[in-house]
Each structure stands twice: as C-alpha cells, then as structure tokens.
Amino acid sequence: MGFLRLIHAKHYARHKGRFSSLALKNSSDGSGISVIEGECAEQSSGTICAHIAERYPTVVGDPIIYWPIPNDLIPDGCVIERAAGDGDDCHYNVRGWEDHAAGNQVKALRIENNDFMVCAEDGPRHLSFDDLA
N- or C-end of the chain: fewer Cβ atoms within 10 A? Predict the structure, then answer.
C-alpha cells in the first residue's frame, strides 16, 4: 500500500484549482515530511480513515483527505525513518525531499485525476470538488 500524506483542506487553493506547496512541506523542526504507512494504519486501527481520525484529527480537519504517495514519486536518496516519540508506530518521516521539489510535486496533482482520497461515511473514495465546498 505504501505511504500516505495527510492533507488539510485549508491548503486547497481554489483560485488555482490545486493544493498549495504547504500541503507537502518539510516540518519546521527538521524531521522531514510526515507520512503514515497505509498497511500499518489498517492493521492498527481497522481502516486508514479510523487511524487518521483517532491519531490526527487536528492535523487533517474535516473532511479527512490524504494522498497515497506512489513509491516512484519519492525521490532517490530520500531516507524514510520511523518517527520517534509520538506513540504511532505507523508514523514516518521522509528526509531529503527538498521543499521546492515536494511543492512542485503536490502542485502537479489534481482532484480530477483522482490523485487524492477522502474519508467518507461509507469509507475512503476519491476526493471530489464537492468535498471542498
């Protein structure tokens, strides 16, 4: 399943029709870009959406949005390390993904291309523009 980046709806730039670079930015504490491992989240909480809702309600807001990161989009040379000390064994940090490159990557993603997922009442599905209204 791979890694998932949690995305807050406030980072959607409606006038540009895309998410801003802030949706995929390195943490100010130098730990890297925070992600969760999808299979681990399912095993830990039953579903990805339950895991995010239980562990990260203030990070994602409502609706819960995430980007399943294709493995080939994480740049060569990045190091993925388990995050320490937050109590979530499914939380990792991607180090070495420069903000400029990460920002360009997330800005290239599109809702209409089904790049993002949303946690709906009946389970995860592709994010739609209506979810951001």
Answer: C
